[in-house]
Amino acid sequence: MTQIDFYTHVEDKLRTACRLAAKAFGIDLPVMVLCPDADIAGRLDRLLWTTPAISFVPHCLANDPLAPVTPIVLDYLGTEPAHDQVLLNLRPEWPPLFSRFQRLIEIVSVEDEDRRIARERFKFYRDRGYEIRTHDLSKAGR
User: Fold this and answer.
1) What are the structural domains of the chain?
2) For residue 142, what pLDDT band results from cuts at 50, 70 and 90?
3) Are 44 and 17 in contact (CB under 8 A)?
4) Beta strands, E only, 24-140
5) pLDDT at 21 over 70
6) Pairing verdict, β 72-75 and 31-34
7) Helix crossing, 13-26 with 38-48: angle to 10°?
8) Are 106 and 7 in contact (CB under 8 A)?
């Protein structure tokens, strides 16, 4: 069954997505990042070139010919996933293919509307019997 993790109280969703993708890359886990649109995918692409500042996180868009062999793939088109390891969802809705992945990551900002929509996704997963772990990032570093 898919392991689901919600990272909550996040100040900057894209920077958090970069950190989580880089962490997964560091332990050889490929990540598919579902972006809501081309703009967010482009912003995340630019951030991944500089996060972390002292190393490189190999990534590309899902429609790139190198996507099947690239550790971090950014998708906003609904492309068929090249792997089933980690899915990082930045879309407001639950991803239809999430159950084929070993792990699903949801990032929830501090914004009220984002939190409301995330609660709907949380309920969707919970009502289907998935165990959900939450990580409150407002308490990180304390």
Assistant:
1) 3-137 (3.40.50.10110)
2) very low
3) yes
4) 31-34, 59-61, 72-75, 86-89, 103-109, 132-136
5) yes
6) parallel
7) 60
8) yes
Estimate to the nearest angstrom the gap between the alpha carbon of 136 and the chain centroid.
Answer: 16
- Quick one: pLDDT band at residue 141, thresholds 50, 70, 90? low
**Beta strand spans in 31-141 (E):** 31-34, 59-61, 72-75, 86-89, 103-109, 132-136
d(CA 78, CA 61): 11
> Angle at Cα 47 formed by Cα 105 and Cα 90, nearest 5°?
30
Residue-averaged pLDDT of the chain? 94
Residue type, 52: P
Cis peptide before 68 (omega within 30 of 0): no
Residues in the chain: 142
Question: What is the token pair recorded at 142?
Answer: 């304390």
80: DSSP letter = P
Picking from 2-16, 49-63, 74-88, which range would have the lowest pLDDT averaged per residue? 49-63
Separation of alpha carbons 64 and 69, rounded Å: 10
